[in-house]
Amino acid sequence: MTSDRITERTYRTWSTPILLELKKREHQMDPAERQALENVMIERRLLNIGSPDGKERRKAELSHKRTT
Fold it and tell me: For 27-34, what is the mean pLDDT?
């Protein structure tokens, strides 16, 4: 594994619990801070925005192709 991948894994391991704790305290934040937190959490896929991605999207596409 490359050092970049190790660094990314370490970053995600340490930052995910911090982001989730911030999410619990978002009611204490200013609107701009809440929006920034939401943007990061969506980017990191820590929030469910109701849109399937990855394997789930491919499953939906395959089932759609089979029915049409």
Answer: 96
Locate all alpha helices (DSSP H) within 1-68, ordered by sequence.
3-24, 31-43, 55-67
Which run of H or of E encompasses 53?
A: none
**What angle do helix axes 3-24 and 31-43 make, rounded to 10 degrees?**
140
Model confidence, pTM: 0.60
* Cα–Cα dist 30/25, whole Å: 11
Q: Over 70: is that where the pLDDT of 67 sits?
A: no
**How many Å from the N-terminal Cα to the C-terminal Cα in the chain?**
42
Q: Which of 5-14, 33-42, 51-60 has the lowest mean pLDDT?
A: 51-60
Q: What are the structural domain ranges in the chain? A: 3-67
